[in-house]
Write a structure and sequence with these properties.
mainly beta, OB fold (Dihydrolipoamide Acetyltransferase, E2P), 5-stranded mixed barrel, 1 helix
Length: 95
């Protein structure tokens, strides 16, 4: 996404705390990229430190595969590279 107005519009639709759904499009040791149903034109990333489906950290081989569906929460808008950062799972241990 290169158009500033399109980025600003997407950010307005995806406030912090919003739950989103999507499919994993790329998997890397540092995390996964997700195509969100709610804003397919925006790049979303779940970094490995924000992928905690069972409350604790995971290894790179435990990240979801390409094509897997995920549910995440918007935790950041990275203006410099126009990415939405997501968290999957509860970050608090024991939850």
């Amino acid at each position: 996404m290169t158009d500033q107005s399109a980025w600003s519009e997407a950010v307005a639709r995806l406030p912090f705390g919003r739950v989103v759904h999507g499919a994993v499009t790329q998997r890397w040791p540092f995390g996964v990229f997700v195509k969100m149903d709610e804003a397919p034109e925006v790049v979303a990333i779940v970094e490995i430190n924000n992928y905690r489906p069972h409350g604790g950290p995971v290894s790179p081989d435990e990240l979801p595969a390409v094509g897997d569906r995920v549910e995440g929460v918007v935790v950041d808008h990275a203006e410099f590279n126009r990415q939405i950062r997501l968290r999957v799972g509860d970050p608090r241990p024991g939850r």
